[in-house]
Specification:
Layout (H helix, E strand, L loop, with lengths): L5 H32 L5 E3 L2 E4 L10 H7 L13 H36 L1 H14 L4 H12 L3 E2 L2 E2 L2 H25 L4 H9 L4 H39 L5 H9 L7 H36 L1
Antiparallel strand pairs: 1-2, 3-4
Helix pairs in contact: 2-10, 3-4, 3-6, 3-8, 3-10, 5-6, 5-8, 6-8, 8-9, 8-10, 9-10
Length: 298
């Protein structure tokens, strides 16, 4: 089996990039269209809001949000621009998210291997894996901070960002565990029997058959896990009061939303872009995993 030629991969990458840009432009166009035709007071049905308000205070123009990123954060002397503050906050959150994602990947894949190795373990663990995702992060965050504050191992001091990373890993491990389990179970029985006929050890079968077969399932799970790790980190920053990240920046900017509506929306856009960056970094990792799969299959 040969890898896709370089020019073909470049064309596919350009095509995906073009689709992404087109989707972004469509989202901006829909935003402006709703702002043009939507009701300023929104729409309500039986007392519940079903459509958001389209007034300038609630929905600033797209170009106003972009322009606000280049202006000073506040009127104080030497204040950085909103864009610079967002980049610094995103860098903090990205590092914490990567730490949480790595922990989630290790934990999720270990659970997948455990469930694959024993039907009893799968029947016992899988329902709890699914049930774990029903616990709201807002309720979980104070518990994690409280438990972490009691951890003292030598010179190790549990810091607030570690709680954020742990919560991020809590969201990241689920798609990895489910995707890896599905991938490890994907080889056909005939292929498994062929390895047994050749007296292959369980480790050889796992490394040369099940692990390569799981890659098409694991890669989307890794990308989803990276995006959910960012979501978990942003929510955890808000819930735990961790400073320095984009989550706290959104809360800080929201306090001036009435007089400067473009400012909090700029931070929200940055948080969304951060999730795309995290998923994009995993896509780069997938290139190496793809080559590994080709080498093992060949």
């Amino acid at each position: 089996m040969n890898a896709r030629p370089g020019p073909a991969r470049a064309v596919a990458a350009l095509r995906r990039g073009g689709v992404g840009i087109a989707a972004l432009m469509l989202a901006c166009a829909l935003w402006e269209l709703y702002k043009l035709v939507g009701p300023d007071t929104g729409a309500h049905l039986f007392g519940a809001s079903v459509l958001p308000r389209a007034d300038a205070r609630s929905m600033p123009h797209v170009w106003d949000v972009v322009a606000r990123m280049g202006t000073p954060e506040s009127s104080a002397a030497g204040s950085p621009s909103v864009g610079a503050a967002m980049l610094q906050a995103c860098w903090f959150t990205l590092r914490v998210s990567i730490a949480g994602w790595l922990a989630g990947v290790v934990g999720g894949f270990a659970l997948a291997v455990l469930m694959h190795g024993s039907r009893i373990a799968e029947a016992a663990v899988y329902p709890w894996v699914v049930l774990s995702q029903t616990v709201p992060l807002i309720a979980l965050a104070p518990l994690v901070v409280g438990w972490g504050g009691k951890i003292h191992v030598g010179d190790l001091v549990w810091e607030r960002w570690m709680s954020v990373a742990l919560i991020a890993s809590y969201l990241a491990f689920f798609p990895v565990a489910v995707g890896a389990l599905r991938g490890l179970q994907s080889p056909q029985q005939a292929h498994v029997e062929l390895f047994r006929a050749q007296a292959a050890s369980p480790w050889r079968t796992f490394r040369s058959l099940r692990l390569p077969a799981s890659i098409p399932y694991v890669l989307p799970a890794l990308r989803l896990g990276a995006a959910t790790a960012v979501v978990g980190a942003v929510v955890a920053e808000v819930s735990t009061g961790t400073k320095g990240g984009i989550g706290r920046l959104i809360i800080a900017y929201a306090q001036s939303a009435s007089g400067d509506p473009a400012k909090p929306w700029a931070a929200i856009v940055a948080a969304g872009a951060l999730g795309l960056v995290a998923a994009g970094l995993v896509t780069l990792l997938s290139l190496g995993l793809g080559r590994y799969r080709i080498a093992e299959v060949s």
